[in-house]
Design goal:
The protein is α+β, with helices and mostly antiparallel strands and 157 residues long. Helices cover 22% and strands 39% of the residues. The radius of gyration is 17 Å and the shape is globular. 15% of the residues are buried.
Length: 157
C-alpha cells in the first residue's frame, strides 16, 4: 500500500497511515491468508485494476530484510526493490539487454541490478533494471525505441 501511494503523495505515507489513505481514496482492498503450499514462506500479491487494465504483482522478503518482486503479470522475476526501477515489456530477443545497457551508459546512468523474466524462449518478456538516478524523459523515449521493447516506464519508490 505504501509503494502504491508514495509516488502520488510522497511524504506522509507510512505503514500506519497507508491503509487509512487507501480507504479515504475509495480504493478497495482485500486481505486473504492461506496455509496452502507455496514457493515462498510468505507472499504478498497486489492486484491493481484500472480503466486501462489489470496488473498483478507478487512480492516476498528473502532473508531478514531483502524485499523482492517475484512475479509481475505471470512473469517470474527476482527484482530488487529500489528507489528507481525501469520496467520494460517486450520480446525475448538477442541484443535486447545489451541495447538497454548501451542507452543507459550513453546517458551516464548506472545500472544497480537487472532482472529478466519470460514465459517462453523468444516470446514475451519483462526486464526490470534498477538504476541509480531518475531517467531523463528523452532517455526513456530512446529506450522505448529499442527494437523488441514494447513499453517502458520508470517506477520511483
Amino acid at each position: 500500500m505504501v509503494g502504491l501511494l508514495r509516488p502520488a503523495l510522497e511524504d506522509g505515507v507510512n505503514l500506519v497511515s497507508a491503509p487509512h489513505l487507501i480507504a479515504e481514496r475509495g480504493i478497495k482492498t482485500n486481505i486473504t491468508t492461506s496455509s496452502g503450499a507455496c514457493d515462498f514462506t510468505s507472499l504478498i500479491v497486489a492486484k491493481i485494476s484500472t480503466a486501462q487494465g489489470e496488473t498483478t504483482i507478487s512480492g516476498t522478503v528473502f532473508g531478514k530484510n531483502e524485499p523482492r518482486i517475484v512475479d509481475i503479470n505471470g512473469y517470474g522475476v527476482e527484482a530488487v526493490i529500489d528507489k528507481y526501477m525501469l520496467v520494460l515489456f517486450g520480446k525475448d530477443k538477442p541484443g535486447l539487454i545489451g541495447n538497454i545497457g548501451r542507452v543507459l551508459g550513453s546517458k551516464n546512468i548506472n545500472i544497480a541490478h537487472m532482472a529478466f523474466g519470460r514465459k517462453e524462449t523468444g516470446g514475451n518478456a519483462i526486464t526490470i533494471v534498477n538504476v541509480d538516478a531518475k531517467l531523463p524523459q528523452e532517455c526513456l523515449r530512446e529506450i522505448e525505441q529499442i527494437e523488441h521493447v514494447e513499453t517502458a516506464f520508470l517506477i520511483r519508490f
